[in-house]
Amino acid sequence: MKKNQNYDVVIVGGGHNGLSAACYLAEAGKKVVVIEGREKIGGMASSGYLIPEAPQHLIHPCALDLMSLRVHPMMPQELQLERHGFRQVEMAPGYVYLHPDGHSLVFWRDPAKTAAEMRRFSEHDATEFLALMRLIDAFMDMAIPMMRVDPSQRNLGAKWEALKAVLRNRHLKPEIMALIGSPAYVSIMERFEHPVTQSAMCALLGAAGPITNEATGIYFALLGFIHRFGLGRAVGGMQTLSNALAARLTELGGEILLSTQIKEIVAEGGRATGVRLPDGSLIRAKAVVASIHPKMALEMVTPGALDRRLLTRIALAPANGHGASPLKVDVALRSQVQYRRHEAMRPDGLSLRKCVLLIGTVEAVLENFRSSARGEVPKLPYMWITAPSAVDPSQAPEGQDVAYLYPVAMPVEPREGWDAIRAQVGQQVIDQASGYMDGLKEFEIGRRVEAAPDLAARLNVHRGCVVHIDTSTTRSSLMRPAPGLGGDTLPIAGLFLGGAGIHPGGGINGLPGRIAAGRVNRFLAGS
Q: Where is the Amine oxidase domain (predicted)?
């Protein structure tokens, strides 16, 4: 790239949201460049061969499942990503809970089938589950139209759809408000009586955060997503999504610059005018979209251009604010794993090899978050585990597997520091998972362990928070990432946020990029 080259828009960060924004802008005829600090695109939506001892085992260092993209499928459809190699398959069933006693509970697409699973343990729980799903379905009808649009706009069509849902379900409104406004844990324990059902629900919803906090009932949306949209995987790995976006951008005339750091987002006279590279060269633009973490983005703006209060507000916005963060352990295996103990206790002969398996009791879910908040490594196993190569055999050599182990809550800042305990904790996770995943320890070729500070360093994301800003009702819509920073414009004209730190939040769906592109187009049209 030539120094001092001019563009309509510079995109800071080549994750899937940055690429999404770039594609929409290029499609609108804008001259766009994406600048990515790493040697490859994708950010958290990436995959690669990352274990040196196993160069043919594909690893997903962050996102693996496609749920949010199935809830909000507009981006791949509108950008024609299938033409560029992106394809997904549905997992049926997607999530299965495994209890330590050998029982299991499947979350099927059909709520009636999930209720039938619960009926094996408690008729009461099955009845309660179907009643709960009626509330969740009504909430989904109200919420989804507004999740898909830019909250800074009038959105009359979406508001009309949401209002119709409210009117249809007005008799349920008090129950819905009580559900989403309460701790998820309280709602689970007051509705369900059997330990397997209680543990399954806690293990599922705990993936969104500490379920004992107020207003975490919004996490029940996960159940609605599962039953209404199901779970998918990218064939060939998550990198295929990012690569398809890059191919579409190139087709539209956009550019991508890799292995390039940005020293400064240049603001002159209250307006973003481009970005400055470490060598001093300036890439000028009429608008800048920062698809990285909002804290990192605003700290890159020319010193003095932003009010100190805003910088403080975003610096203190909760990112793993509860003290817990997922740990990631990937294991390359020379043979295939099985789940014989739990399969043997099922009445239907269901194979669990292709499913995402949830491990942990009620007590474990609570202990993991509480221990992490104290800076202590949890002792009880709570994690999600799966073998991606079971769904897509191309991700490992024939007859072999990759294991994806995801302890949901580990300390962001353990007292001993991660450098001192990383290997030990990685072994603890493998030891715990091996009680459910047969062959995990015996077949190991190599492993990769990544904690919150590792993710933070690799992807420049504050405290390793995979959703940038914690998910909550007070950090949604125009309040995400913080008051005064979630709307159509920022205090610096021509500067826009476009990552998971804005509406509608984390997940692989490209909507933050899509929303940012709309804001840029309106800004440029009015300039």
A: 18-406
Domain boundary among 464, 490, 505: 464
Q: Which residues contact 500 (CB under 8 A, 6 or more apart)?
A: 17, 466, 467, 468, 469, 506, 507, 512
Contact criterion met (CB below 8 Å) for 51 and 445 = yes
User: Total domain count for the chain?
Assistant: 3
CA-CA distance, 414 to 324, in Å (whole number)?
Answer: 10
3-class DSSP state of 35:
strand
pLDDT, tens digit, 9 for 90 and up, residues 401-442: 999 999 999 999 999 999 999 999 999 999 999 999 999 999
Are 337 and 415 found together in one domain? yes
Please state, in angstroms and rounded to a whole number, the distance separating the CA atoms of residues 15 and 484: 25
Q: How far is CA 10 from CA 39, 124, 198, 318, 341, in A?
A: 18, 56, 48, 27, 53
Do 128 and 146 lie in one domain? The reply is yes
CATH number at 243 reads 3.50.50.60
Kindly provide the b/e burial profile for residues 491-511, where b requires at least 16 CB atoms within 10 angstroms of the residue's own CB: ebebbbbbbbbbbbbbbbbbb
pLDDT digits (tens, 9 = 90+) for 58-99: 999 999 999 999 999 999 999 999 999 999 999 999 999 999
303 class by beta-carbon count within 10 Å (0-12 exposed, 13-18 middle, 19+ buried): exposed
List pLDDT tens digits, range 42-63: 999 999 999 999 999 999 999 9
Same domain assignment for residues 341 and 445: yes
Please give the Cα distance from 144 to 225 (Å, whole number). 10
Measured in whole angstroms, the distance separating CA 208 from the mean position of its chain's CA atoms is 9
How do 255-257 and 32-35 pair as beta strands?
Answer: parallel
With a threshold of 0.85, does the pTM exceed it?
yes
Rg (CA), the chain: 23
Report cis status (omega within 30 of 0) of the bond before 151: no
476 lies in a domain? yes
* DSSP, res 56: T
Residue 2 has pLDDT above 90, yes or no: no
Cis check for the bond before 61: say yes or no (omega within 30 of 0): no
Residue 298 lies in a domain: yes
| Runs of H (alpha helix) within 380-465 | 388-391, 418-433, 452-459
381: domain CATH number is: 3.90.660
Residues in a beta bridge with 301: 265
Note down the domain range covering 214. Answer: 110-228
Among residues 410, 442, 464, which one ends one of the domains? 464
Mean per-residue pLDDT, 263-272? 97
Domain-located, residue 79? no
Assess whether 328 and 423 both reside in one domain: yes
Give a yes or no: residue 506 inside a domain. Answer: yes
